[in-house]
UniProtKB/TrEMBL annotation:
CDD domains: AAT_like (cd00609). It comes from Liquorilactobacillus cacaonum DSM 21116. Residues 32-380 form the Aminotransferase class I/classII large domain. GO terms for molecular function: pyridoxal phosphate binding; transaminase activity. Belongs to the class-I pyridoxal-phosphate-dependent aminotransferase family. This is Aminotransferase. It comes from the Bacteria. Gene3D superfamilies: Aspartate Aminotransferase, domain 1, Type I PLP-dependent aspartate aminotransferase-like (Major domain). Keywords: Aminotransferase, Pyridoxal phosphate, Transferase. Its cofactor is pyridoxal 5'-phosphate.
Length: 388
């Protein structure tokens, strides 16, 4: 008899709802996919060229575990330029295999079984998987009635003596919410009072609208830098999901420990992808800003159509998702999404993929061409009319 696998943790882990739903979508020819979690445009040309040149120049070997020092320096300058934050390229930054590895590495570095992590929900499913794997206690805070923003009162109420880490993800996947500096300041006060760590997932920081420029970081608030772990990367900001480059920026004390976890798991990301990321964060940064302008137009088209159809939603100010309230239809999010898929050939992500607090919603991505949004809205309008 073959011995069982890790039943305690791994075999009980569920695949994400997004993956499971996408398997259904793949079997429906002609479905319009508002399910996508990545930019539809190619990686900017100079960035691609840098990757190609790196291969030609034989940059095809291991880099230091913490990442190519030239990239770490570019990340350090980026954080200085956009947030006036000083992180040492040598001691306070780790280049990771996308934001996903950054999150997982930090969870495994910080958390022991039964430590509590506070996660505002609905949330990116990666936190749930990595949280379960560390056997820590995930404390979800329902933000559905506070515009998907964690409020100081909600945070205070969720804290117990076992709380160790708070996860913030603004701009937020799946809701497009962001927090203002003054909202972050109020959370910071509580986090400092209770002596907690914060993981701030800023993967969508540059994809913000309404003249915000770049989303503020809680690390910039007085007293927060030493207890904050910034997670970011080029996947979303530079349309580089396949290159697999992210990073962690935090104190030397945390980096020293996280580096061991990272080293044993991955050694380092691909050397040529790291070179390309340097160009993405420097020469090609204007491309990132152009993408944000394009996405703002798409957001507006989507939001105007949803208003015309008379649907309820929170107007997204960041990321490229709109979380649509479907509570008026009296259906769970999976049934609603299946109906739209099979009857109207429109694919949207069931909100239950983003924790139990997402079940009255579906996520619409506007990382698709304007014409596709227009056609999708026609299908949604017909689908909604049939349910009213
Ligand atoms: N964090 C958030 C909020 C995300 O939405 C995603 C991807 O969807 C990630 C992290 C993971 O990013 P990466 O593709 O760089 O691993």
């Amino acid at each position: 008899m073959v011995k069982p696998l890790n039943q305690n943790v791994v075999t009980n882990l569920q695949r994400t709802g997004i993956r499971r739903f996408n398997e259904l979508v793949a079997k429906v020819p002609g479905a319009i996919k508002l399910t996508v979690g990545e930019i539809d445009l190619p990686t900017p040309p100079n960035t691609k060229l840098r990757g190609i040149n790196a291969i030609t120049e034989n940059v095809t070997k291991y880099t230091p575990n913490a990442g190519d020092l030239e990239l770490r320096s570019a990340i350090s300058e980026y954080l200085e330029q956009h947030y006036q934050l000083n992180y040492s390229a040598k001691n306070e930054i780790i280049v990771t295999v996308g934001g996903s590895e950054a999150i997982d590495t930090i969870f495994r570095t910080l958390l022991e079984p039964n430590d509590e992590i506070i996660i505002p929900a609905p949330c990116f499913p990666g936190y749930l998987g990595s949280g379960i794997l560390t056997q820590s206690n995930i404390v979800l805070v329902d933000t559905c009635s506070s515009e998907f923003k964690l409020t100081p009162q909600q945070l205070e109420d969720a804290i117990t003596p076992s709380t160790k880490l708070v996860v913030l993800n603004y701009p937020n996947n799946p809701t497009g919410s962001i927090l203002t500096v003054s909202e972050l300041e109020k959370l910071a006060e509580i986090i400092i009072k209770h002596d907690l760590y914060v993981l701030t997932d800023e993967m969508y920081a540059t994809l913000v609208y309404d003249d915000i420029g770049i989303a503020p970081s809680i690390a910039s608030i007085q007293g927060m830098k030493e207890r904050t772990i910034i997670v970011n990367g080029v996947s979303k900001s530079s349309s580089m999901t396949g290159w697999r480059v992210g990073y962690i920026a935090t104190s030397e004390k945390i980096v020293e420990q996280a580096l061991k976890v990272h080293q044993y798991a991955v050694a380092s990301p691909a050397s040529m992808a790291q070179k390309a990321a340097i160009t993405a964060l420097t020469t090609d940064f204007p491309e990132t800003q152009k993408m944000a302008l394009l996405f703002e137009r798409r957001r507006d088209i989507l939001v105007n159509s949803l208003n015309e159809i008379g649907l309820k939603f929170n107007r997204p100010v960041g990321a490229f998702y709109c979380f649509l309230d479907i509570s008026e239809f009296g259906m769970d999010s999976w049934s609603f999404a299946e109906k739209m898929l099979y009857d109207y050939k429109l694919a949207v992500v069931p909100g239950s993929s983003f924790s139990k607090y997402g079940d009255n919603f579906v996520r619409l991505s506007f990382a698709v061409d304007e014409q596709i949004i227009v056609e999708a809205m026609k299908r949604l309008s017909a689908g909604v009319a049939s349910l009213r």
